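**Discrete fold encoding**
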Amino acid sequence: MRKNPAIRRYSRRVIVLSLIYAITLMGAVYLFNRHLIGGPIAYAVAILPALPIIGIFAAIGLYLVEESDEYVRMTMVRQTLWASGFALSIATIWGFLESFELVAHVESYYVAVLWFGGLGLGACANKLTIGRDA
């Protein structure tokens, strides 16, 4: 079965953005570890790896708009709802634990990591419920 055009565009966008993320992250780590930048430019370099991640969020949104198969679109919406609920729940729990000094501080960009993990949970939930929903 050939992938539909919306999936192909989505996959291409995510692959390109993932490569850009890896390059910008490695570059930023290199520059900061060697103390080669400072001042306002340091802020711009620190933000660079976040931009492709934001782009991946946008790519998911574009995919949802471009997907013409209502069932396939619905499964992706369910996946993103799982991801959002999972990431926000863990971040909220951790935030309260942290505020009462029961756990160590975790950098906030890990919420995106949780969200992407939640996409995986959502995909599993879709697989488990597809037969039941049909």
